Amino acid sequence: MKRQLHSPLFSRQHGLTLVEILVALTISLLLLAGIVQVFIGNKNTYRLQEGLSRMQESGRFITEYLARNIRSAGYMGCLSRNAPVTNTLNNADTSPYDFEQGLEGFEANGTAPNQTYTLTATNPEPATTGSGWTPNLPPVLAGKVIPGTDVIVIRGAEDNDVEVTKNNDSAQLFARNTGVEKDACPDPNDPTKKIDRISGLCIGDILVVSDCQKARVFQLTNLTSTGSGNTEINVVHSNANFTPGNAESSWGGNSTAQDESFGPGSSILKVSTRYFFIGRRAAAGGEPAGPPSLYMQSGTAAAQELVENVESMQILYG
Hints:
By secondary structure, the chain is α+β, with helices and mostly antiparallel strands. It has one helix and 14 strands; from the N terminus they run αββββββββββββββ. Strands 1, 2, 3, 4, 5, 8, 9, 10, 11, 12, 13 and 14 form a twelve-stranded mixed beta sheet that branches. A two-stranded antiparallel ribbon has the order 6-7. A hairpin with a 4-residue loop joins strand 8 (206-210) and strand 9 (215-219). The longest helix is centred in the N-terminal third of the chain and has 54 residues, at 18-71. It starts with 17 loop residues before the first helix and ends in a 10-residue tail after the last strand. 25% of the residues are buried.
């Protein structure tokens, strides 16, 4: 038997040289860099598509929401647009309570058709006065609206109506009791407490009663269940201490004036003034101010952010 010789070329490998390790690391890093680039590219594409989808969704929401509200401007139930509306509220000629004007617009100066408006900042401060609009902004919007953006105001009835059951009497109306929601309304005498909502109404609501020929706007100052089996509600519009309160608290009843009488066939609805404008969240608690957004404010209540990252709103009236 011949003895087998072992060549160094066929000897068992006992490790890697430094050069081989460096080459392997270099190749691994190149492969890893390629994978990271692909991941970052896919992530950026996803973010771009997600941003475009959000923008399209927000655009559809804004268009639909504004259109629905604009279509309801001046709505007073079955009342014709040309029929008389009597406003019995205090300060009835001020913006939050001027319900005889269903639609109102405020044009930012320099933004009319065929005019060019240049933004001076990417996130401008809201205007401190209303003099930058035609006509001037109402005081209720002071310090809230971003310059160069239009404002639209929509007034009218909302929600479902409540049927009147018998002729009104002095400072009260009588309507159908459609149900009670426990602790659904703020207590006007104690903000820390809640009281019941009856027939969809809360004490302090601004209401309109209409019989298709005429209408009256008033503030609800008290609400109780009445009638046999509590089938009715007593809708009171006295001169109690409310804001804005009723300038005229007693009408109807034994009065011979036809425009003060509302009986069966009439209906009661909630009315509101809604302001739509471009504003931004104020800096608070160490957080910076928010981006420009579309806001909606109901009457004198706090404004609510509807859609963020809306830089401007320009409205054309035809």
